[in-house]
Amino acid sequence: MSTSTHDSILGAIHDASATKQPTPGRRLFHGFSLTKGGAGEAFFAVGLGVYLGYSVTRIHEVFPVLMVPRLPMILTVFFALGLAFLIPARGWLMVWREARAIRIVAFITALAIFTAGIGIWISGSLDFLVNRFFITVTVFLSCAVFLRDRRLLRVALTIYLLAAAGITVKSLFFPTMVQLSAADLVDQDEQNERRAAQGLPPKLERLQVSTSLDPNDYGSLLVSAIPLALWLGIGGLGRRIFWGATALLLVWGIVPTASRGALLGLVAVGFALIVQGGTGKRRFFLALVAAAGAAVFISAVGGQQSDRFSDFSGADYNLTENEGRWSFMRQGMIWMIKRPTGLGIGNYPVYFGMINGPERAAHNSFVQYGSELGVAGLVSFILLWRTLLGGLRRMQKRAVAVGGGYGKLSTDEATLAGHMFASLVGTLVTGFFLSNGYLPLMYMPLGLATAVLLGSPLPADAPVPEATGKRSAPVRSPGWRAQRPGTIPGTSARGRTPPAPPTPVVGS
Questions:
Q1: What is this structure's pTM?
Q2: What is the DSSP letter of 467?
Q3: Hey, how many other C-beta atoms are within 10 angstroms of the C-beta on 421?
Q4: What is the pLDDT of residues 308-351, one digit of tens each?
Q5: Residues 6+ positions from 251 with CB-CB distance below 8 Å
Q6: Which of 163, 164, 157, 111 is nearest to 137 (CA)?
């Protein structure tokens, strides 16, 4: 670990532990602050970083020496207790009111519980809820609440990204390829003969990242991590070099996964970073990083990998074969139409197996929601994404609008919103090809985005620029009609007003 990284972790914990007087812009509610975390929350932020680096990346499966029996379950219980006892009831009321994303996830959870009772396999859905989805929701809430403080967010992401970088180094320089059984080899030969008859290249031997994380999942993880690594690199020259090199390493790590979904996600992240990641010099810097990432990726791609990454033709098995993604996704949407209340959470593979023989996943997180939680689940999931992506864009525009009145704070908040937006875009694009709808791999970025919106210290009543460049009217708080208009002290003859001190901001 570099000296700058080590100092950032210690500094964040020290600052979070120190007792400070409230400052303008710190949203307080009976001692609970939305923008600053206390000593206890700093402790949980470190725990979250360990959990994400351990359970989401599966680092213990790559490096068995790090195996700690039942650590994810222990940490999940630990987070649940922290959420229950460390956050006061009035603080939860404030979080509930400010964070629309949390209210949507609460509705999705209630819907999952309800549809489990009317699904096709009740006991299977209940087991999935207890052992999978409730854990995911706990991780989401922990990320959203404990990481709203920017310094604590940096602590958790530092630990998480160092774990991802370690696994990537192992995958690149000491790879473990997928070991196939004799039956799998025969099946692969038959598939390759069929593909050769169609004029297609043979299927590529792919990287085995860990026993429970397939190449597509790991590619999705890397795609969403790259913008976060670049955000950690904002600061001194040493920080920029270390985290910039880490981001390029993660780009390189996508190559052996041979995941075309990850490639599409990487391209989407590059565009999102250039457009939303910053302005002026920062945008030029991100364009250079995107060009460097493209150069690293192209130079690292081998022959068969190049054929696979460039094969998006209509003859691809995902479009033409019954075992392709299009067939799975179409089947799921048909089931949603026939059964609008859904099959019950976790039941797509079960129903597919009942009808077609072997169980198969939906291979699309949105289809997964629609088929298992019904129309209401699909609409809620789409609304969750719209809320967070739209909230991050508005946050960035508001940060630009307040400009010099808040100095470096406005620039930092605009940059954070842009990088978090790019991370969500990467998760969204790769989510179209994976069944990760209920996993921490999906809900971790959603929770981080919620934390970014929830902890913003910028004012809610700052004007948000229109798309045409004009300034829109300020966001008004409830009861604004009852306020009597009056002369604003300090207004100039041209009607310009000096920047006001920060006021509360509406969260997600």
A1: 0.82
A2: T
A3: 26
A4: 666 665 556 565 566 667 788 888 999 999 999 999 999 999 99
A5: 222, 226, 266, 293, 296, 297
A6: 111
